[in-house]
Write a structure and sequence with these properties.
Oligomer: heterodimer
Distance between the termini of chain B: 29 Å
Strand content of chain A: 15-25%
Shape of chain A: globular
Structural class of chain B: alpha/beta
Largest sheet of chain A: 6 strands, mixed
Strand order of the largest sheet of chain B: 7-8-9-3-10-11-13-12
CATH superfamily of chain A: P-loop containing nucleotide triphosphate hydrolases
CATH topology of one domain in chain B: MetI-like fold
Number of helices of chain B: 20
Largest interface: A-B, 68 and 63 residues
Number of helices of chain A: 8
Order of helices and strands of chain A: EEEHEEEHHHEHEHEEHH
Chain lengths: 255, 636
C-alpha cells in the first residue's frame, strides 16, 4: 500500500470552483475519513484521484510520483455509494470482478488462475465463492457492496477510495460493511480515503479526519482530536447536528 | 432473458405480429420461386382485365397476373426495407455511440450534427437524398437509410448517455477497461432492448416510405417491381379496376402492421417491471393474532389516531402479498411517535395507509381506524368523502422534497391551493395564509420566497415549505416519512427542530418514520419497532437504548455506530436477510435471524403483548436477560 497526496488540488466546473487548493495526505496503511456536507466537494476529490474529474491546478501524487490515470493498471480504485448502480446488472459478479483483475505484465491470467483469484477475493469479503455465477439482482444491498469492494481490490490497488459506501444501506447491513472495512485495513494494511457525511461512521473506521467545507479543508487531524476537541466552527456545527447529541434543537433559520 | 423473449409469443399482439411477419418472410422467400414465371407471363388476350376466375386480381397493361405479381413483389419490398433498416441502424449506432467514444470536442460536434439533422422532417430528408442519389432501388435504399439514421442516432445517444453515467461504467473505467470494450460490454447490452423495439417500428415506417417513393416514381423502376411500383401502375385504372391498386396497398398495410405489432409486443414485454412478484407466496397461516390496546390511562377522546389490525394487501402472481400484517397502535393528542425498521418492514406503507394514500391495486383493511374521532372506514352519511377532514387535519411530509412539489408552480401558489381547496379561502386570503405559513416554518423573507419555484429552494427549504403546506390547515397529526433522509446532517437537525416547534405551537401529534434510530430517539416520546409488516415492540424512547426487550430492537440499536461506540470492538450485525413480504414464515418472522430463537419461535407466532408501563413486545423470550446479544462478527 502507498501514500496518496493531494497537493494544492483545484477543480473547477465552468465558473464554479469545487475544490480550492486542497492538500491532504492519506498515509500508508491508514484510513483517512473525509467529512462535509453535500456540495462541499467530497466526491469531487475522490473523482479527481481516479481521473473522473478534471484537475485544474496542483497535483495528485502516489508515493511521490504523479498518479497514473491511464492504461490498464490503475493504482487507485474506488467503491461507490449505490450498490444497485455500481454493478452491471447483465454481468455475473464473477465477470464484474474478472474485468478488474490485475494482469501481470507478462501476459494473461489462465482461466483457472482467474477462477481461483475470484474465489479468493469473494472469500476475502466473506461471500461464498460459489456466488461468482450469480447476477447482482440475486444479491442484497450489503452483499453487492461487498462485491464492489472485492472488485476494487481485484486490481491490486495501492489505495482504495470509499465514497459514502454505507449511506445507501440499511443500518443492519451497514455494521457488517464497516466491520469488513476495518478488517481489510488491519489484515491487508489497506490505505483508504473514506468519505462519509456520517461522523459516527467515520469516527468508527478512520484514524484521521479531514473536514471539507465549500471546497476547502478547514480542519484535519487525528480522529479523536478533531471530533473530541474541534477547533473550527464548522466542525462544531457538524458535531452539534448529530442526532442523539445534546445540542440538536437549536433554532436556526437558514437551512 | 430468453424467457422474456419467449413471453412475446404469449401475448395476443405478439402472436399476430410475429405470425404476420413469418407469413411475409415465407412469401418473400418462396413466392418468386413458385410463381415467378406466372407473374411475368404476358397474356395479350387479357390486357387490363378485371378480376376473373383465371386472374383473381385482374391483369396489368401487358396482361400479367396481378395476384401473383403482388405476391412476388414481397421479396423486393422486404429486401429493400431490411437493407435500408440495417443501413439506418448501423449509421445510427455509429453516430449514437460516437460522442461517448470520441469524447470532448469531437463528440460534441457529432451530437450537434445529429441534432441539426433531427430538426428536418423525415420525408424532406428522404426526398432530398432520393434526388441526390438518383432514381432507382439503390438510390431509394440510401435515401431512406440515411433519412432514418439521425432519429435512431439521437435515441441511441440519449440511451447511451443514460447508461454511461451509471456507476458501474465509472467503475469499469477506473478498473482500466478501455472505452470500446466498455461500450460493447456494459453500455450496448443495457440499451439493446429499447433500441430493438425502435428499430422494429422504424422498419414498418421504412416499408411505407418505399411504397411512397416507388409510388412517386422515385423508387423501383420497371422491369423491377415492388408494392409501391404496382400501386402506381394500378392507379391509372383505379376507377375501372380498383383491386389493381388496392391489393399491393393491402400488402403494404399488412407488412407494416407485422413490423409495428411485433415492435409493440417486444416493447410491452420489456416494459413489464421485473421487480413485482415472482416469489413463491405463503399467506401466513391463520388469522393475524388479535392484539388489544390498553387505553387505561387515556380516554378515547384523547386519541388523535386509533388503528387496530391494519393490513395492506397487494395482489401477487401467486396469491395476495401482505407487506403490512395487522398493525395496531394509537397516538394521543400532541404525542410524538416514531416508527423504525429496515427497508421492507412496512413502516412507510403503514403511514400511507393511514393517510388514505395507498393506491390500487393495493387494498387496506382494518378492524378499526379512527382519526380525530371520525371513523375512516365508514363513508360519511352526507355522501361526501373524508378528504376534507384529512385535508385540513392531517399533514404529510415525504422523504424527497423535490418530487412532492409541482416543479412548474410557484411555492406560494401550491400552498395557497390547499387553503382554497380545503378551507374555502378566496385567492387573496389563501396567498396571505401561504406567506404566513412560510413564516411559521421559519422561511426567511416569505413574501419573496412564496413567488419562487421549487428549484429555487434548497432541500432543507423545500422540506420546510412542505411542512408549511401541512400547516395551511390546523393539523392534529403530522405524518413524516423519512423527512430528513435526503438532507445533510446540519439541515436535518434544523428540520427536526422545526417539527418539534410546530408540534409545540400547533399542539399536533407526530408520526415520524425513519430508518435511523437516533433521529427517532431525538424527537419522539415513543417508538414502534416494525419487522416484516408487524409491530414487534412498542416502548418509550427513553428505554430504547437500555431497556428494549425484543432482540430485534436491541440489535437495531447496537448496529448503529454512535459517537460513543467502542471503536476497538466490532459492530454488532444482524445476520441473515429481512423477510420478503411474499415469504413470511410460520412462527416468529424474526426467528431465522434471532440469537434467542427456539423451537417454539419457529412454530408459533408471538403476539404483541402489553407489559409493565404500557410498553408492548411480541417475543417469546422478551423476559430473558439481554446479555446474549454481544457484538458478533456475523456474516449477513
Amino acid at each position: 500500500m502507498s501514500t496518496l497526496e493531494f497537493d494544492h488540488v483545484t477543480v473547477r466546473y465552468g465558473a464554479s470552483t469545487v475544490l480550492d487548493e486542497v492538500s491532504l495526505i492519506v498515509p500508508d496503511g491508514e484510513i483517512v475519513g473525509l467529512v462535509g456536507e453535500s456540495g462541499s466537494g467530497k466526491s469531487t476529490l475522490a473523482k479527481a484521484a481516479v481521473g473522473l474529474a478534471p484537475v485544474h491546478g496542483g497535483q495528485i501524487l502516489l508515493d511521490g510520483e504523479p498518479i497514473r490515470l491511464r492504461g490498464r493498471h490503475r493504482p487507485v480504485q474506488m467503491v461507490f455509494q449505490d450498490p444497485f448502480s455500481s454493478l452491471d446488472p447483465r454481468m455475473t459478479i464473477g465477470e464484474s470482478i474478472a474485468e478488474a483483475l490485475y494482469r501481470p505484465e507478462s501476459g494473461r491470467l489462465s482461466r483457472a488462475g482467474r477462477r481461483v483469484e475470484i474465489a479468493r477475493l469473494l472469500e476475502l469479503v466473506h461471500l461464498d465463492a460459489g456466488r461468482a455465477g450469480h447476477r447482482p439482482g440475486e444479491l442484497s444491498g450489503g452483499q453487492r457492496q461487498r462485491v464492489a469492494l472485492a472488485r476494487a481490490l481485484a486490481g491490486r490497488p495501492r489505495l482504495v477510495i470509499a465514497d459514502e459506501i454505507t449511506s445507501a444501506l440499511d443500518v443492519s447491513v451497514q455494521g457488517a460493511v464497516l466491520n469488513l472495512v476495518r478488517e481489510m485495513q488491519r489484515e491487508l494494511g489497506l490505505s483508504m480515503l473514506f468519505i462519509s457525511h456520517n461522523l459516527a461512521v467515520v469516527r468508527y473506521v478512520a484514524s484521521q479526519v479531514a473536514v471539507l467545507e465549500g471546497g476547502r479543508i478547514v480542519e484535519h487531524g487525528p480522529t479523536a482530536e478533531v471530533l473530541g476537541r474541534p477547533q473550527h466552527d464548522y466542525t462544531r456545527q457538524l458535531l452539534a447536528a448529530i442526532p442523539g447529541g445534546h445540542d440538536t434543537l437549536t433554532k436556526e433559520t437558514n437551512a | 432473458m430468453s424467457q422474456r423473449w419467449f413471453r412475446i409469443v404469449k401475448t395476443p399482439v405478439g402472436i399476430v405480429g410475429l405470425g404476420l411477419l413469418a407469413l411475409i418472410v415465407l412469401l418473400a422467400v418462396f413466392a418468386p420461386i413458385l410463381w415467378g414465371d406466372k407473374a411475368s407471363t404476358v397474356d395479350t388476350e387479357n390486357i387490363l382485365a378485371g378480376p376473373s376466375a383465371q386472374h383473381w386480381f385482374g391483369t396489368d397493361n401487358l396482361g400479367r397476373d396481378l395476384f401473383f405479381r403482388v405476391l412476388v413483389a414481397t421479396r423486393l419490398s422486404l429486401t429493400l426495407t431490411l437493407v435500408a433498416t440495417a443501413l439506418g441502424t448501423v449509421i445510427g449506432l455509429v453516430l449514437g455511440t460516437a460522442p461517448q467514444l470520441l469524447g470532448g470536442r469531437l463528440g460534441r460536434l457529432v451530437t450537434a450534427l445529429v441534432n441539426v439533422f433531427v430538426a428536418f422532417p423525415g420525408l424532406l430528408l428522404v426526398l432530398v437524398f432520393a434526388v441526390i442519389f438518383g432514381v432507382g432501388a439503390r438510390g431509394a435504399v440510401l435515401a431512406i437509410g440515411l433519412a432514418v439514421a439521425p432519429g435512431l442516432a439521437r435515441l441511441c445517444q440519449t440511451l447511451v448517455a443514460g447508461v454511461a453515467g451509471l456507476e458501474y461504467v465509472a467503475a469499469a473505467r477506473i478498473a482500466g477497461v478501455n472505452r470500446f470494450r466498455i461500450m460493447a460490454r456494459h453500455v450496448l447490452p443495457n440499451v439493446a432492448e429499447p433500441l430493438i423495439v425502435n428499430v422494429t417500428i422504424t422498419a414498418g415506417a421504412i416499408l411505407l416510405s418505399f411504397a411512397g417513393l416507388s409510388f412517386l416514381g422515385l423508387g423501383v423502376q420497371a422491369p423491377e417491381y415492388d408494392w409501391g411500383r404496382l400501386m402506381q401502375d394500378g392507379l391509372s385504372g383505379i376507377f375501372v379496376h380498383p383491386l389493381a391498386a388496392l391489393a399491393p396497398g393491402i400488402m403494404v398495410v399488412l407488412a407494416g402492421l407485422a413490423f409495428n405489432l411485433t415492435g409493440e409486443a417486444i416493447a410491452g414485454v420489456f416494459g413489464i417491471s421485473t421487480t413485482t412478484g415472482t416469489g413463491t407466496m405463503q399467506v401466513p397461516s391463520g388469522e393475524t393474532p388479535v392484539t388489544e390496546l390498553r387505553h387505561d390511562h387515556e380516554a378515547d377522546g384523547d386519541l388523535v389516531l386509533d388503528v387496530r389490525d391494519l393490513s395492506v394487501t397487494f395482489p401477487g402472481v401467486n396469491g395476495p402479498v401482505r407487506p403490512v400484517r395487522g398493525v395496531s397502535f394509537a397516538i394521543a393528542v400532541g404525542e410524538a411517535v416514531g416508527v423504525v425498521g429496515e427497508s421492507g418492514s412496512g413502516k412507510s406503507l403503514t403511514a400511507l395507509a393511514i393517510a388514505g394514500l395507498v393506491e390500487e391495486p393495493a387494498s387496506v383493511d382494518a378492524r378499526h381506524l379512527t382519526f380525530c374521532g371520525t371513523d375512516l372506514l365508514e363513508e360519511p352519511a352526507n355522501g361526501q368523502t373524508h378528504d376534507k377532514l384529512l385535508g385540513t387535519s392531517l399533514a404529510v411530509v415525504f422523504q424527497d422534497p423535490m418530487t412532492s412539489f409541482n416543479p412548474t408552480m410557484r411555492i406560494g401558489a401550491q400552498l395557497a391551493e390547499v387553503g382554497r381547496h380545503h378551507q374555502g379561502l378566496d385567492r387573496k386570503e389563501a396567498s396571505e395564509r401561504a406567506v404566513d405559513r412560510l413564516r411559521a416554518v421559519r422561511v426567511r423573507d416569505p413574501e419573496r420566497r412564496a413567488r419562487q419555484y421549487p428549484f429555487e429552494f434548497s432541500g432543507g427549504m423545500r422540506q420546510r415549505a412542505m411542512i408549511g403546506m401541512g400547516l395551511m390547515g390546523s393539523p392534529r397529526l403530522i405524518i413524516a416519512d423519512e423527512p430528513t433522509t435526503a438532507l445533510d446532517v446540519t439541515v436535518q437537525s434544523q428540520v427536526l427542530a422545526l417539527l418539534q416547534d410546530v408540534r409545540r405551537e400547533e399542539g399536533a401529534a407526530l408520526l415520524l418514520i425513519s430508518h435511523d434510530v437516533s433521529v427517532v430517539a431525538d424527537v419522539c416520546d415513543r417508538v414502534l419497532v416494525m419487522y416484516a409488516g408487524r409491530i414487534v415492540e412498542d416502548l418509550p424512547t427513553a428505554d430504547l437504548r437500555t431497556r428494549a426487550r425484543h432482540p430485534y430492537t436491541r440489535a437495531l440499536v447496537a448496529a448503529v455506530p454512535a459517537m460513543t461506540t467502542d471503536v476497538d470492538a466490532p459492530l454488532a450485525t444482524i445476520p441473515g436477510h429481512p423477510v420478503e413480504p411474499a415469504q413470511v414464515p410460520v412462527g416468529c418472522a424474526y426467528a431465522a435471524r434471532c440469537p434467542l430463537a427456539t423451537q417454539r419461535c419457529l412454530e408459533q407466532d408471538p403476539t404483541l403483548t402489553a407489559g409493565p408501563g404500557g410498553s408492548r413486545v411480541a417475543c417469546w423470550h422478551a423476559t430473558e436477560p439481554a446479555e446474549v446479544l454481544t457484538a458478533q462478527e456475523a456474516i449477513a
